[in-house]
Amino acid sequence: MLSYIVRRLLLMFPTLIGVTVIVFSVMAFAPGGIGAALRSAEGNMRAEDRKKVEAYLNKRYGLDKPKVVQYFRWLNQVSPIGFKKDEEGNAAGFGFKPPDLGESFLRRQPVIRVIAEALPPTLFLNLLSIPIVYGIAILSGIYAARYRGRTFDVTTGSLFLGLWSIPTMWSGVMMVGFLSSVDYLHWFPTGGMHDTLSAYMRFLPSFAADGFHRGWLLDSIWHLLLPVTCLSIGSFAFLSKLMRSSVLENLQADFARTARAKGVSDQNVLLRHVLSNSIIPLITVAATILPGLLGGSVIVESIFSINGMGKLMIDAIYTRDQELVMSETLVVGIVSLFSLLLADILYALADPRVSYE
Amino acid sequence: MTQKPLLQIRDLNIAFDTPRGQIRPVRDVSLDIFPGQIVALVGESGCGKSVTSLSILRLIPTPPGKVLSGKISLESRDLLALTEKEMRKVRGKDIAMIFQEPMTSLNPVYTIGDQIVEAIMLHQHVDTKRAYEIAEESLREVGIADAHRRLHEYPHQMSGGMRQRVMIAMALSCKPRLLIADEPTTALDVTIQAQILELLRKLQRETGMAILLITHDLGVVAENADVVAVMYASRVVEVATVEEIFDHPKHPYTQGLLRSVPKLGAPEGRLESISGAVPNPARFPTGCKFHPRCPLTRQAAVKVPADQTVEIKTVEEKFRVLKICTTMEPELREIEQRHWGACHLVENYERSKVSLPVLDHRREVTANVVDTEHEGSLVLDELEQGRKEQNS
Amino acid sequence: MSSASINSSAGSLADAPAHVEKRRGWLASVVHHALSRWGTRLSLAWIGLVAFCAVFAPFLANSFPLLVKIDGHWSSPAMTHLTAVDVTLVIAVFSSIVILNFKGLSRLAQAGIFLVILLATLTIAHFVIKPPLVRGYEEYRELKQEGRVQAMLPAPIPYSPSDHLKDQFDFTHPQPWAPSGSHLFGTEQNGEDVLSVMIYACRIAMSIGFISTGIAVFIGIIVGGFMGYFVGWVDLLGMRLVEVFGAIPTIYLLLAFCAAFERDIYMVMAIIGLTGWTSDARFVRAEFLRLRGQDFVHAAIAAGLPLRSVLFRHLLPNALAPILVSASFGVAAAILSESVLSFLGLGLPVDAASWGRLLNQSVGQGGGFHLWLAMYPGLAIFLTVFSYNVIGESLRDALDPRLNPQ
Question: Which of A71, A238, B247, C208 has its CA 20 to 30 A from that of B275?
Answer without folding.
Answer: B247
